[in-house]
């Protein structure tokens, strides 16, 4: 058997494909319904609201993609390559909106901009106009959803773009400037193409999050595939119609992922030089510095400061709306789930990403399917997980009853293990995108060198790639943690009995129109998410290799530790 076939059928590849199959099992379960008989409800949906679902979803995707790309890339370049007033604060503050769930942001903006809110009240006080005597933009609209989701999800692009700009060798930009390129030309012709894989990964994550969002678009009364799936499944009681809508949504996701990978296929760049020097910042003063500061701080204000201020104001109106003991129990439950899911997602992503890097079409296809769960609503994934787990539990219980007269009940269904499995299906794509972006910066010659020394692929992964991916792995862990803390639909359906999280408690209050009481658990989610977000920002700031040149040995070692963190 030649080396290519040995690699194809190695135990590592087989293990990765099996694990990817397990993660993709709920998604495949949804796909199986595509051949089910079309019901009258499905025919009604296809004839009436399906075109609206497609149109609104496409508009959301286009608007969020453009806005997040512009905001994320522009702010990342400014903080990574320029000096201006407030840059030190902006480089970590720009990540803060990532800690605010989109549905929480929707509640805050609705309260802030509604007719009885502070903005319109102040406007009427200043102008003397009556409620129906003027026009005011409606936040609960498709345009409002694009606005809100853009400022909620631009940190995905900012994180990947900033990490790419920070990790670029100074000698590359020096070469461009020595050839007469202006700073703008160096950015457009050199830095931007080098960062293209990172930008594609960031935009893809933002769009998958946009497609999967339910809380914000539902609150804004925007009809998308996710709201249609909820309506068909829970309001109309038609599982087949809901699953078929989910299949169409899954097609959107697969097209998006394939387009993103095709865009990166011919845009792989590797740092082959160990020579790094401190980045020479472009100093912006006067009106340029003020403009740069405004560009960087406006997204922070709109995506974090304003929603947080509204929530704080609502919280102060009610005080402690949850008993103190219950409050700490919610925090503990949330953190336990987030830490376990984050750690498992990192291990799986490292294995799957490495196998896909050197594998063939079957391995890459398996990893692609395993990473599509991020754009599927949490409730669909929850049901997709519960169906096979319930069948397994019932089969095991039936066999033990008949063979030994012992009943096990439901071992996995409604357990923490099932909930964490659902989180892995939902958020594995976050870790995969981050790890794959890190692997893209490691030259393939390192794999060949390890193989020439007799190391297996697993040894290469553990002893060569894992140390180089420390920053990417930690970033993936933190990103998954934050997403798990914010996840609502899957937690509502799959959590064990009387095992609530902060997100569940906030939803329960908000669904009862007790928005002021929902402010405390919502703020706690934000504060809990701030810790990994700030750590992530500091990690990226330190990922610039060789900032203090010493000896050739020192710079070479740091050069090999270059991190591509997303």
Descriptive notes:
The chain has a two-stranded parallel sheet with strand order 1-2. Helix 4 (50-81) runs antiparallel to helix 5 (87-93) and helix 4 (50-81) packs antiparallel against helix 11 (196-212). The protein is globular. The protein has helices spanning 3-8, 11-31, 40-48, 50-81, 87-93, 102-113, 118-127, 142-167, 170-178, 183-194, 196-212, 215-219, 225-235, 239-265, 286-318, 324-358, 361-370, 378-404, 416-440, 445-452, 457-468, 470-486, 489-494, 502-511, 515-542, 552-560; strands at 82-83, 282-283. The protein has one domain (9-269, 277-560): Orthogonal Bundle (MetI-like fold). The chain is built from 26 helices and 2 strands. Mean pLDDT is 77; it is low at 272-278 and 544-566. The protein is mainly alpha-helical and 566 residues long.
What name goes with the CATH superfamily? MetI-like
CATH fold field value = MetI-like fold
Number of helices: 26
Let me know the largest β-sheet: 2 strands, parallel
| Average pLDDT taken over every residue | 77
Residue runs with pLDDT of under 50 for 5 or more positions: 272-278, 544-566
User: What's the β-strand tally?
Assistant: 2
The termini sit apart by: 39 Å
**Binned strand content:** under 5%
Structural class: mainly alpha
User: What pattern of helices and strands is seen along the backbone?
Assistant: HHHHEHHHHHHHHHHEHHHHHHHHHHHH
Instruction: Using the alpha-carbon principal axes, give the shape.
Output: globular
Strand order of the largest sheet: 1-2
Number of domains: 1
CATH class: Mainly Alpha
Q: What share of the residues lie within helices? A: over 70%
Which CATH-level-2 architecture? Answer: Orthogonal Bundle
Assembly annotation: single chain
| Cα-atom radius of gyration | 25 Å
